[in-house]
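Researcher: Quick one. three chains, 939 residues in total.
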Amino acid sequence: MATATASRLTFRKPSVIPGFGLTFGLTLTWLCLIVLLPLSALFLKTSELSFDRLLVIMSNARTLHALQISFGLSLAAAAINLVFGGLVVWVLVRYDFPFKRVVDAIIDIPFALPTAVAGIALTTLYAENGWIGSLLAPLGIQVSFTPLGILVALVFIGLPFVVRTVQPVLADLDAELEDAAASLGATRGQTIWRVVLPSIWPALLTGFAMAFARAVGEYGSVIFIAGNLPGVSEIAPLLIVIRLEEFRYADATAIASVMLLASFVLLFIINRLQHWAESRGGRER
Amino acid sequence: MSIDVVNITKTYKAFTALDAVNLHIPTGELVALLGPSGSGKTTLLRIIAGLEWPDSGEIRFDGADALNRSVGERNVGFVFQHYALFRHMSVFENVAFGLRVRKGADKLPEAAIRAKVNELLALVQIDWLAERYPAQLSGGQRQRVALARALAISPRILLLDEPFGALDAKVRKELRRWLRQLHEELPVTSVLVTHDQEEALELADRVVVMGKGRIEQIGTPGEVYDTPATAFVHDFIGESLSLPADVRGGRLFLGERAIALDSQGASEGPARLLARPHEVDLADPAQAPFFGKVLAVRTFGPIRRADIQIVVPSGHVVVEAAVPFGEGLEIGSQVGLVPRRYRVFGAKA
Amino acid sequence: MSALEPAALAQPLASDGPPTLTKQARAQNGHRPARTEPAAVRIALTLIALAFLGLFIGLPLLLVFVEAFKRGAAAYVAALSDPDALAAIRLTLLVAAISVTANVIFGLVASWAIAKFEFAGKSLLITLIDLPFSVSPVVAGLIYVLLFGSQGLLAAPLQAWDIKIIFALPGIVLATIFVTFPFVARELIPLMQEQGTAEEEAAISLGASGLSTFFRVTLPNVKWALLYGVLLCNARAMGEFGAVSVVSGHVRGLTNTMPLHIEILYNEYQFGASFAVASLLALLALVTLIAKTVLESRLAEEEPR
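Model:
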């Protein structure tokens, strides 16, 4: 009797809520069809290339330059966003000023505005006869069609990543911490440097890494303003498109694999950073 | 409807939540499963409900196997610890839910549903809240909604998981009395899980004390309080004063000194002597079985308690004893302790 | 608390006799609330932040609308009623409708499996669902070309059955679904995880079936989060450029979506027309943001306390 009961029970599901098999199966199937299989096609195509061929493609000066520009400028843009994004968060969370809600909402524009629209708007803005470009031209500064233009576009698209990652952490920060630091004799500067900043540091780094990851792969907002001069202002995603249009599939595939690998590494880093952020400055659950 | 729990075992990875538990709950009784967290009481309740399944063993309702029926088919009313009210539904719709999801021949006409829900809301005394949403209710009101919702399906068994856990002390006491009254009016077999001994002792017909996945004692509130079956029960229910002792040749020893107290048939070897602080008299140290140094005397309201440090072979223990009104105890002085009532448990018990 | 407010500080000063400027300044520096900076610093920081936001976000947004209407309303209407523009708008709406529907179904199914059950490898699954966020849109387009293109892995069977995916609607839809893949799921999963399973268990213990539990309890509990996800998903689907650009083939009137149409017009120096179409997408972005702001307060209601 007891054994019969036990063997029957083994096949029972451990939850009363139904539908796990169906929903889990559908999730996995759809994920494989849309994401995993196509992505593995990229690696399959890359693995068809011989190592020598791969080396030739990747050591091509134009390829190297494009990667250098994409990664270098993305890093610079993420750094700018780290500083100014951090400042924007501080002002938004700590100070009051007119139209604060509007300003807060506008931060998400780079998320919501299609990249092509952002691209042509920034290009026109910074063109020699544009609103900002015409002010900079007498100073001898050219933004549109130079690497500086790429930087501007990458700052634009990366900003919300830093702001939206850090904002909730700073808002949740226990204000008593600062009171405590002040009561122990710390100056305002010391309190911010030693108490506030370490608490939001994991979130800042997470936002930085996210802005960087987004910038490396960015295409739409950059190609209009970049000028796309090979070796000077040509980004890696554009080079993939150009190689594809030239039917040089091997080149396109190889560059894309490098970009994808970089994405994976960044994803992993962001994942670790988020865990760290949760265990440190994050919300207590 | 009676409930039989037969040899129920449940493990989570390395942790044994329930270890061959047997329990009979007769029809109409209100039983409390009482124990510290991790004692398996909630797991047992969820297994009875059909929200979880045991690794082995049987659950029978009125003698019929219940394990082959899903929670929906068992017709049990379950009151969740945090109520699990449907937050987007009004109080009325929450209570009506179980009636609305019925299909086919069981489906009640709208008028019958309304009548039944209104009757239940009146029963739990919240008919005036029918159109409110759960977020607009106080904790005590939510508790009543949860109960009305569970009762709406005319359950044969009512299961309550820490029903008063999330409420503050005053509301808790009030609701406790009210629930007991409700049980008199509506004698559905009920099982309630709690870690609050006061709650269990006041509410339940019988108390099942659980510890580490096993049942330590089953009895009326009076029985588990006055004659605890194990040292665990003695410790867990009510206040306890505990002293290490030894049983040698059927006699009780503290270290090398024989004590003039009954060993109560405890097994040979190390043992523990347990007593209630208010059942220990203060006496002349020279004539008492125990004596020690007064460390502190505290007064809370009508009660006075003294911390007394007693030297035992392994060092010393501090016990708490009641100080009768008018007794002057000097800190640092020696005082004797005579337990009026006590229990001796062998180390294995 | 109120003793820390600057207003409250003025009173002890007043009783000390007529406050001199220096004394007041010293008092403000010495007894400033512990949680903030001097007023001058606050104002300066606020101005820098606002200037930065205005320069990088406000101006580009404003410029889109100014450029769109610079040449008058007639030119604006003409640009939008051009047959190619209308075709692009129609295609964009169609693609968005299909991909949002697909992602809503996927999002609901995935979040049910992930949030309501415990199983091994759950966090890996969540990471994989989030994966398309970190893939460059160009790479997202490329992988479909490598799979379905004329030299792709599946080229032979597709040719045999005369199925066209790349440079056609299916490719555009696939690429759009890929880049918007996580949008709905990532709004639902954390919320449903926080809401837990107690309400579903309660419904089932009251006799509800699985489907009825889903439609009567789970879905109403996440409706605002779902709408929020749909909104963001839709904005991205309509605006996607890189991935669609790679798979579309840019056939005017056939495989051009609105963002691609904007690009073509811009490259042909038809700036007015280009910005006119862009203004529609910018408007969509603004509406999305306004709806998002409104929804956020609703979302807070769904968070369990």
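Residues 1-33 of chain C form one domain.
Researcher: Thanks, that's what I needed.
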